[in-house]
Design brief:
This protein is an all-alpha fold. The protein folds into three domains: 114 residues, Hypothetical protein, domain 2 (Endonuclease III, domain 1, Orthogonal Bundle); 72 residues, Helix-hairpin-Helix base-excision DNA repair enzymes (C-terminal) (Endonuclease Iii, domain 2, Orthogonal Bundle); 49 residues. It is built from 15 helices and two strands. It has a two-stranded antiparallel ribbon with strand order 1-2.
Length: 281
């Protein structure tokens, strides 16, 4: 089945810029940060902007964290920009400006967990690691466990061992599984007729038993929306803004103050009521 899957991937994979050889490990690392909880269509222009402006870790590290946050735009979860900047600084100071290739070294970088470390190794260095994102976990759950979704919110050791055993030392399997889950074995309406692994799928053989319905998180009116509204003002200002400008962006006083306090505590904003507020330098 591995060879069938790899043959399918060779003909069906989307042409994404971070998959091209010229992207290199740095392009892959940037892509993994921006793709977290964000669809590819929104990521593409931001990734291209970042790599044009900061083609190396040294280029990003030499700029301010505030500029990284500004260029993050409206992708959401702006602490990703902050952590990516911190990772670039670490790469320069500890690894001579080159993204490290070892799992432990990657794991030591800010914002990099087990999944991202394996993804950079697999896609940036051609290693045989199989990173377990939501798509890969769903594909393996359907193929091997016969369930609609993987168990638990995060993978455990047994799940990683299953993935590694499925790859059996073959490079490219992680990317193929990820693509299969992204465009064929999708969560709600899988395209089983187009699946190269359909004959081996235990979920299909079991009659497609339903999984647990997942409830999406609300956004409108939340503190997260308030933080985003205030941060948008700071991104657009290119300098300190008075508290009144933030009040105009988000009216509810208590929630606005709570959101602003959170941005200041997280290092995503700087300043005070007397001097005004801005992105960090």
């Amino acid at each position: 089945m591995r060879e069938t899957l790899l043959d399918w991937y060779a003909g069906a994979a989307r042409d994404l810029p971070w998959r091209r050889p010229e992207a290199g490990p740095w392009g892959v690392l940037v892509s993994e940060f921006v793709l977290q909880q964000t669809p590819v269509s929104r990521v593409l222009p931001v990734w291209e902007l970042w790599l044009e402006r900061w083609p190396t870790p040294a280029a990003l590290a030499a700029d301010s964290v505030g500029e990284a946050i500004r260029s993050w735009g409206r992708l959401g979860y702006p602490r990703r920009a902050q952590r990516l900047h911190a990772a670039a600084v670490e790469i320069v100071t500890r690894f001579g400006g080159d993204v490290p290739s070892s799992y432990d070294a990657l794991l030591s970088l800010p914002g990099v967990g087990g999944y991202t470390a394996r993804a950079v190794r697999a896609f940036g260095f051609g290693a045989i690691d199989v990173p377990l994102d939501t798509n890969v976990r769903r594909v393996l759950a359907r193929l091997h466990a016969g369930t609609a979704d993987a168990a638990g919110s995060s993978p455990g050791r047994a799940e990683q061992e299953l993935a590694d055993g499925f790859a059996d030392g073959s490079g490219g399997v992680g990317a193929a599984l990820m693509e299969l889950g992204a465009i064929v074995c999708v969560a709600r309406t899988p395209r089983c007729a187009a699946c190269p692994a359909v004959a081996a799928c235990r979920w299909r053989a079991a009659g497609y038993p339903a999984g647990v319905e997942k409830v999406g998180q609300a956004y409108a009116g939340t503190d997260r929306q308030a933080r985003g509204a205030l941060l948008a003002v700071l991104r657009d200002a290119h300098g300190p803004v008075p508290a009144s400008a933030l009040a105009a962006a988000w009216a509810p006083v208590e929630q606005r103050e709570r959101a602003l306090a959170g941005l200041l505590a997280d290092g995503l904003a700087a300043g005070d009521a007397a001097e005004g507020y801005a992105l960090p330098t």
